[in-house]
Amino acid sequence: MRWLIIGGILALVVTVYALVDLTVTDDRRVRRLNRVLWVVLIVVVPVFGPIAWLAWGKGPRADARPMAPDDDPSFSRSPDVTDEEADRRIAEIEAQLAALESEDFGPPPAPERAPDPEPRPKPHPPVVGPEDEADGDADGTGRRAPDDGDAARA
């Protein structure tokens, strides 16, 4: 019974691997059947479908296109432009850039200043009356001084 469970798990793993491999494989490498029929074969025939896909369904990697233009030798070769022509074009562009850098457009415009906001009126100090002094507010700010504790009053 234990080998049956291990075999079932192994068949499931191979099936999932084959399905993922089928989905990421380039269309040029899929052989013998189209992609939809391979999915049906892998799912319906659990053990033999994935093995068939891995053994006969994928073409060799040489059939796939290069992943980047740098890998393709025909991309870097251009029959229209020779080395002398490319050097001449580069020299022209460098001359144009040098001319643009040497142009003087005058001083930069001064940034516009926003108008100064009107100054706010300063708040008036609180009025100290005789009742405030009785509370221990000797400096007139509405707060007690740090050395005006209960111990100082005793």
UniProtKB/TrEMBL annotation:
Report the source organism: Agrococcus sediminis
Name used for this protein in its record = Cardiolipin synthase N-terminal domain-containing protein
Any one Pfam family here would be PLDc_N
* Transmembrane helix keyword on record: yes
In which compartments does the protein localize? Cell membrane
Which residue ranges does the record annotate as region Disordered?
Answer: 59-154
Q: How does it sit in the membrane?
A: Multi-pass membrane protein
Presence of the UniProt keyword Transcription regulation in the record = no
Q: GO cellular-component terms in the record?
A: plasma membrane
Biased composition range(s): Basic and acidic residues: 140-154
